[in-house]
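Q: Is it fine to ask for two folds in a single conversation?
A: Yes, each is treated on its own. Send the first.
Q: Here.
A: Result:
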Amino acid sequence: MRRLLLVALMCGVVGGAHAADMPDLPFLRGSFTEGLSTATVNWQGGYIGGHAAYGTSNMNFTGSTRNVVARLLDGTEMEAIQRISEWPVLGKVSAHGEGFGGFIGYNAQWSDVVLGVELNYTHGKFGGSQTGSMARFFSLPSGYTVGATYQATAQMILNDMGTLRVRGGYAYGSFLPYMFGGIALGQADIIRTARVFGTQVNPAAAPPFQNVPFDVSATDAQYSHLIYGYSFGLGTEVMLMAGLFLRAEWEYVRFASSIDTSINTVRAGLGYKF
């Protein structure tokens, strides 16, 4: 009996020693996943990549041909009295476009907080055009009755745009959701055409000025014109392996020019962090 007790005691001591030597695994303290966590990825450093974009351009052509008509009719009684250049012949329009480009930047990281600066460039075809007209009859103090038609066409095509961004994010495991804001530059072709035509009638006027037709037109074209504005947006990145990451984001860009323009794009990209 003594021998059995001695053997049991020795087995208990040996078993306890082995248990103490084993690692403190989570499944020994509860469920298998308890205590396990995903390590935060190191986003510190420079990176580079490319993206594809699809978006909508929203343009307000209201008043975009006003100065063209004002120059055409400068000094005339029609413009002084009726302000033909201010007639509302054009309005707002939206159009879809697509493009591709690249980005390069640098991240600084403090624990889970990531701050960075990035240069982003997109080449594509964003923008649109609109045509409108308006006709009116009116009398002038000189005694003429005028029937005038104002036709206008405006077009804006944005071929290249870039943004200099400051961004901030919070790293969660392999994911980096972020928000950004910055300045935007673009290169656009802006073409505005206006035509005003009609007839001035005054039976009391001396011949041959009783019926006087008129037809004037002009085009103002700016090619590769530099425009500027601002941008902001949201995005997320996910680290795949060894510095290779995927990106998805939404960006809003607003440009200040003779044609008020904003562009919303969604983008998908692939990059590499050094």
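Q: Second one now.
A: Result:
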Amino acid sequence: MGKRDDSDEAYVIDLCNEVLGETALAQHKFDWLLGDPDTKGRRAKLPVDAYWPGHQLVIEYRELQHDRPVPHFDKPDRLTVSGVHRGEQRALYDARRDTEIPAHRLRLVVVRPADLDADSRGRLRRNADADIAALRRILPRDSDEDRVTDAFRTWLLTEGWTPVTPTDRWTDIEAVRRSERLVGEVKGRTSEKGVDVDIAYGQLLRRMTSDQPDVRYALVVPTSSVKAVERVPPQVRRLLRIDLYEVTDDNRVRQLAS
């Protein structure tokens, strides 16, 4: 097992995989996240610690050297391509990640040793139960609609779909699979289930700008709204090419019968 596989970073990513129900792309590089140019003008892609496409989530595990001077890591007598020592460059690139990742519509969560069970030197004790409990508090999205969207997007990936930037900016989720295209509207838990579902059906109707038979529409709801979405008769849903999906409280996805 390599050094990185034994690291606290790898340990934290493994725990996040368990919490999120999806395996991360570790040390992932985006085309738009770049370092400073070297002497030949070349700009290397900056890696992120972990990226979960289904959750549109990036996690950075930042150990103590990211927040305070550590001569062993900073190497103050050696300049980088940015013209500063390694510690200053690390801060510069962290700030670039903090700006660019949200700007590209991804969620960034920064996890530090102090968020988990760590000693005074920032070394994790690897108390998995305590650390998972802490990550379950840190990682959830702000709303239940976000939770339902993340679970459905992750499910789409397992089914061979590729989420894409929606054609209509108001569409919640859009994905392609070979010649097929899926356009989806997502709802979370609500006290006005019937009203919100009726609004969702209306929103889908406005998205129906293509008569191509390989374009389908999806209404994705939590378990609490299943009865409300099924009030529209199956034959009507079939004519409109609307499929219904349920996301359970434990984030499992199932397609409802039409």
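Q: Anything structural to flag on that second result?
A: Two points. The CA atoms of residues 110 and 213 lie 43 Å apart. Helices lie at 8-20, 71-74, 86-103, 128-138, 144-158, 193-207, 226-229, 234-240.
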